[in-house]
Structures are given as C-alpha cells and as structure tokens.
C-alpha cells in the first residue's frame, strides 16, 4: 500500500495549475454584502425601532457570519485552479473541504459558458463541463471571458476527438 500525503492527493506532481481571476473574490464579496449585509441592516434598524434585544442578537450573528465568510473568501478563490492534461481536465478547489475532480475528455458530453449580470460587469465567466454522470461534472468559476471561450473550445474539440476514437 502506498502512503499518499494530503498534498500529493490534491496537488499531483508535475501539474501546472491555472488560477482563476481575483475578480471572483470581488463578486463573492458583493454577494456577501447583499445577502448578509442587507439583512444585518434590516435587523439593526428593527432593533433600534422596536427597542428589543432579539433583532440585535440576529444582527450580531449576521455580523459574525459576515466577518467569518469575508476572512475565507480570498483564500477560497486562490485555491481554485484547473489544469489541462493530454487525456483529462483537473479542477481543484477548497480550503477546508478540498476537492480534485478529474474529467476524462472522452467522457464529456458538452461544455457550457455562463455569466450573470454581476459576472459580466466584473469581466468573468464560468465554464461547466457535463458528463453522463452528474457526480463527475466540473465547473471553473471566475475565468476572464476570452479564457473561458478558449477553454470551452479546447475542451469541446478534445472531447469530440476522444469520442471519435470510441
């Protein structure tokens, strides 16, 4: 039995990882401000108007949650990477809960590129690979649009070439 360390498991030797754009962190900070900061303000105002403690407790919990998430967003984005090898695509992500997804090109069915309004405003897009098995789908968030188009076209052509050989 081979003794594999944690770094070898999620960071195979000889792989040159491509990072995603740091603008993905900006997008996540904006979403954090909207979905945690907005309710925090509402509960703080409720606490001031109602003169009771429960809205302040909720506001405090939201503030703690917001700070904790804000502390890890940058590290999470820096942990995302992808690498194109001859036969497959590797996608890694996660700080506390790490994952490494390996998708063989011959198993890919189609590749999507998407960008919502915030992502378009920040100049980023997501590439999602679909396979016959939902558990092996992979996505790469936070790519510049030109890189997302390049990755999409390259993966689609590699996938077609591998399928043709079956």
TrEMBL record:
Domain YdbS-like PH residues, every copy: 78-155
Transmembrane helix listed as a keyword: yes
One Pfam family this sequence matches: bPH_2
Keywords: Membrane, Transmembrane, Transmembrane helix
First and last residue of the signal peptide: none
Domain of life the protein comes from: Bacteria
Protein name (Swiss-Prot/TrEMBL): PH domain-containing protein
Organism, as annotated: Sanguibacter suaedae
């Amino acid at each position: 039995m081979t003794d594999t360390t944690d770094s070898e498991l999620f960071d195979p030797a000889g792989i040159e990882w491509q990072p995603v754009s740091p603008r993905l962190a900006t997008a996540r900070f904006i979403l954090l401000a909207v979905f945690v900061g907005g309710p925090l303000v509402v509960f703080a105002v409720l606490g001031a108007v109602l003169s009771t403690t429960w809205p302040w407790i909720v506001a405090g919990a939201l503030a703690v949650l917001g700070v904790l998430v804000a502390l890890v967003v940058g590290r999470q984005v820096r942990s995302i990477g992808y690498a194109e090898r001859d036969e497959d695509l590797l996608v890694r992500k996660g700080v506390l809960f790490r994952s490494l997804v390996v998708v063989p090109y011959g198993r890919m069915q189609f590749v999507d590129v998407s960008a919502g309004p915030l992502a378009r405003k920040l100049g980023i897009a997501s590439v999602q690979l679909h396979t016959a098995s939902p558990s092996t789908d992979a996505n790469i968030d936070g790519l510049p649009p030109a890189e997302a188009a390049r990755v999409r076209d390259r993966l689609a052509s590699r996938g077609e070439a591998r399928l043709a050989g079956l």
